[in-house]
Design goal:
By secondary structure, the protein is mostly helical. It contains 9 helices and no strands.
Length: about 220
């Protein structure tokens, strides 16, 4: 399991170093403009999670799965490593983004407690939304050939990410620094989403994992 994860992390690092640098840059920009930082965070967390799909293309190009099964790992281990990789990327990206944005805002003296609390709240929602989308994407990548990976990424990641940024820009025009100042109905909706999204995401992720295991067990790797 550890070896499978290290292989995927090395693949992502080798092929996406410029992308990682851009991610750090956007986190720093969020620190400069912390009022709107959460909208950048949503977009780039989605993009970071999409790196999981790039590992499927690499595995297919070098027939990695067939080679991996000659080692003391099972097909379930291969599936489990992909879902664990996604979880580590999303959680790690969220934490790194928040820490870097906070540090930059403190250095530049743009830090505001209420604005950062809003960012934490948004991070909680985005985290579970991205895990939801990533789990569905991983299931589809086990089901369909990697040639469809780009189309799957557009449908699962890019379109929702752009929609999130557009909704974020509209929301920020209506949003105040204090969530309690929002309309009662909208505040209740946000709180309900904050409770419901983790449950929904965990259920969907579990189902996607089970179906992915079944699909990969029957897949012919010859």
């Amino acid at each position: 399991m550890k070896g499978l994860l290290l292989k995927d992390f090395y693949t992502i690092w080798k092929g996406g170093r410029i992308f990682l640098i851009l991610y750090v840059f956007m986190a720093a920009v969020s620190g400069v403009n912390i009022q709107n930082g959460w909208s950048y965070m949503g977009f780039w967390m989605v993009m970071m999670d999409s790196q999981t799909s790039s590992t499927f293309s690499y595995d297919h190009s070098c027939n990695w799965n067939r080679f991996a099964l000659t080692m003391p790992v099972t097909r379930k281990d291969v599936v489990r490593s992909k879902f664990l990789l996604q979880l580590l990327i999303v959680c790690g990206s969220t934490l790194a983004y928040l820490v870097l944005a906070a540090l930059v805002s403190l250095v530049l003296r743009t830090f505001e407690v209420k604005a950062f609390c809003n960012m934490l709240f948004a991070a909680w929602l985005v985290l579970w939304v991205v895990l939801f989308m990533g789990s569905v994407s991983t299931l589809l990548l086990f089901r369909f050939p990697p040639e469809y990976a780009r189309l799957i990424s557009i449908l699962i990641y890019v379109i929702p990410a752009c929609a999130f940024m557009g909704a974020g820009s509209v929301f920020m025009r209506e949003m105040t620094d204090d969530l309690t100042a929002l309309p009662a109905e909208f505040s209740a909706m946000l709180l309900s989403a904050a409770i419901a999204m983790p449950v929904l995401s965990l259920v969907v992720s579990g189902l996607c994992y089970v179906f992915s295991c079944r699909i990969f067990q029957k897949k012919d790797l010859a």
